Each structure stands twice: as structure tokens, then as C-alpha cells.
Amino acid sequence: MGSIASKSTEGPNDDVIEQIVCKEDDIPNNGMQEFEIGNNGNKILVVKQNNEFFAVGSKCSHFGAPLVKGALGDGIVRCPWHGACFNLKTGDIEDFPGLDSIPSFKVSVANGNVKVSAKKYAIEHPKVVKPLTKRNPENKHTFIVIGSGPAGTECVEKLRQEGYDGRLVWVTKDSYLPYDRTKLSKSLSSEATSILLRSHQFYESGDIELLNRVGVESIDTCAKIAYLSNNEQIKFDSMFIASGMTPRSTPEVSKYDNVFTLRTIEDAHKIFQSLSSDCHFVVIGTSFIGMEVAASNFSKVKSVHVIGRSDVPFKESLGREIGERVRELFESKGVIFHMNTSVINYIGYNNRLSEIELSGGLKLKADVCIIATGSKTNVEFLAGSNIEINSSNGAIEVDEYLETNVKGIFAGGDVANAPIYPTDAKSSLGHWQLATYHGKLAALQMIGKKTPIKSVPFFWTALFGTSIRFSGYNRGYTDVLINGDLENFRAVIYYCKGNEIVAVATIGKDPIAAKFAELLRSGRTLNKEQAIDDKWLTEEEDTVVCTRL
To answer: What transmembrane ranges does the database entry give (predicted)?
Structure first.
């Protein structure tokens, strides 16, 4: 529906557009609709909830997805692509990925008309970067954040956005400013400037002391002193550990210049520069990094061989059904799989790998090899610190507030063994979305705003142009229910634990993964009967539970 009437008025800082966008009855309760505003084709999203109207930017701040195609929850709208959530009143980002909020606009209703008042600048700039508090020299408190992945990045930003004005030291072994690591496996040639999340000037505006190429050597948890690799000793009041993971490798390949793991920009560039049209490319590992690298570089090399211990790729994370179909997709492109096998020998000369021998005796030519067989937690510096480490996965034990067994020290991201909402389980999950949320939550805890975990795991991948989205937690699932056409990549896969649906994966079925994540976040459950033929989706508009608006 187009606009009904509009006028432009001059505000103190910017031109303001006042426009009647629709009639009061044009949008049903718990409904949303896009409207053009102004004369330049810009759009806003208008939402009706609890018979109250809200207006926010129409696009997700992460990749620009149309929010009108997303999921509506209690006081939030959720992106259909990657699950980011935005507050309907303020536009603030509440769950992730992404760092930026979206604009919110004033709405009034009179004589049955819904009128929006919006500054032109806000309409034309769909991302809102919230300002950072400066350091107050009178505040003698010191917070330390370790790691510049999504958890650490969000934590330092949230601390300053929430008004923390003490000293803030950010320690990272990385050479670069924080960047979107998820893009590396999809494009090895990514330049740092194209995937940076923030600029130097941004962090300087908040007096954040960013120490690149610096690690933490040890922590005295009694005296609360961090000992750094640059020989600094910093006494702290609170700490957030988001030191992440390091890819697993094997000692016998360390001498070979053409065997790689992928974690950093430097890793990606070394791999990319090693590829050529006559290259035999071998990928060891069939989870996300290995499969994404195989898919995104297939056209650049002579052959791609993928080696896996299980019988199908993604078996542990997405299950056999999706794994089999993904394997068929890859094989249709010419990728060769060697499954139910392992590497028993690496053969090479003069620091160059030339062949890989498999457990069945087959030898593969290998001009370039990537090992993508999992990661180990970066917790060595915690030896002797009294911080509890889980003996099974090597991650730091934390409670529902991300606090370790040492008061005032928090941990998050994939280095933390954290509760998985809304289950009773704990795990270390390497999801970008969840790690970012951990960073936000840790910042709130550090400044005394105690907030329990309430974020549903959400992840995604893209393989040969096919996107897979996943929400929930499916460890220990008993069976699956498939709706749609998996053969043609238009399907919903429901993971069941008994009669309960605990997770969903979708292919070509947006925004179902986002809707399921919102259902779980709201405290509701889904059973098999409701999932048959996706019946629950027709009930969703009437079952949004609104309590906080």
C-alpha cells in the first residue's frame, strides 16, 4: 500500500517527514507491512502489536534482508535470513548477527489514520551505530576483554554503549581490527578492509585500549592481575574471556608449506595464493569450514577431493538426510568424496606435500591440503588460575550469566561451556550469532545488569548457491520429519526428540528457521503433530505472546 499524504518539515538537526502511511485497520494485530515514505523510494516497516503501532527501518542491519519477511515476536522483529532481532520501540539490536541497530520512528494515530514522523537522514541510513561513552579519569575501575572475535567485539562495544566509563583494555593476538570471520571460508581472497566490522576511529571514540598481537600469558585470579605477552601487568576488576579456538592440525604436516588450517585472514590469503588451475586440492573434514572452502574454490582448481570419517558430510550437525543431499550436490559439480576413511600417511619432499594415503590404501595427489577437522579451545593461559575447565570439551565452565567459578570473571563464545537456551544442556558452540550474544550478555553482567541467557542458537551456510539455515539445538535427537522437496532444495527438516521438535533446518524456506527460533525464545514448544505439513505456521500470528510492550 502506498502513502496517503505527506509533508516535510524542518527539524532542529534534520528535515522531518510526516506522512500518513495507512489506515488503522489496514494492518491486523500482530501484523506488519512495508510502506514507502518520502519521495526517494525509501521504505519503513510498520508493526501493529497489542493494538499499538510501531515503525522501524525496513532492512536488517546485517545483510539488508527485508524484515517484513521475517518473524514477529514479543516486542521484536527477527530477520528472515540469519535471525537478528530488533526492538520495535527503539530499533536496538537485541540478538545477532550484526552489530548495528536500525532506526525507529514516532507513530501517532488520529481519526483512523496512522502517521509516521521520521527524519530524512534516518530513513536514508538504515544502520544506527550507537555512540560510545568516553573514559572518565575519575573512574579507577579496569575491565579486560580477551579476544577479538564476535564475543569480544560485542562486549567492548556494549560496555561503552551502556555507559561504562572506567578503563577498558582489549587484548587480542590478531593482527587486524575485528572482522567477519564467517566470510573467509566463502571467499579466501577477502581483503581485511572489506570485512572489517569497525574502524580504529570508532574504538578511539570510546577510549578503548586495543592491544593487537598481544596475548595473555597468565592470570592471577586472587590478586586479579593479567600478565600479558608484551610484559605488561594489568590489575583488573572484571574480565571477559573470549579467547576462542585454534584449528586442530597434526604434527607430521607442520613441515609442509602447502598444508593449511583456516582461522585468520593470513591463513585465507596463504591458501588462496597457493591455488591454481592445475592444482589438486584436498580438504580433510566435512563440516562447515571444509565444505564451504571446497565449494567456493572448486572452479579455481583442477580437482577437489574431500575426506571424511563419517559416511555423509554434516552428519553430526545437520544429520544424514541433509548430508546425503549435500553430497549429491557436490558430486554433481565434480567434487570427489572419500568417506568412512582417514588419512594414515602424508607423503612429501622438500617441505612440500605431494600425496595423501588413506586408510584403504588409496593415494591422492595433493598440491594443496586444508585440514578442517575441528578446533581446540584457547585456554592454556588459564593453567593455575583456578578457573574451572570442562574435562570433556576443554571449554571454560560458566553459569547462565556466563560467570565462571571465579567471581567477576566471565567467559563466552566457543571457549565457554555455556547453557543452551531453552534446554537443560551445556555446550561449546562455535556459532557467530551465539558468540555475539554472549558478548552482549557479558557486558551487562560486568556492569551489574544481571541477565540470564535467552538466545536460541542460529547458524547458516551457503554451498554452491544453496543456503541452509538452522535454529535450535539437536544434539541427541531421535528422528526427523521432512516437509517439502529436499531433492529440489525446498524443504524443512524437523529434528525430534520423542514427540518434541528441538530444532529445524530449512532450505529455500525462509523465514521458517527464524520463526522457530522466535517460538523457542518465547518459551513455547512444538510437537510432531503441529509440525506435520508445517501446520504450526498458520497458527503463529494468533499465538505471539506479547508481554513487554
So the answer is: none
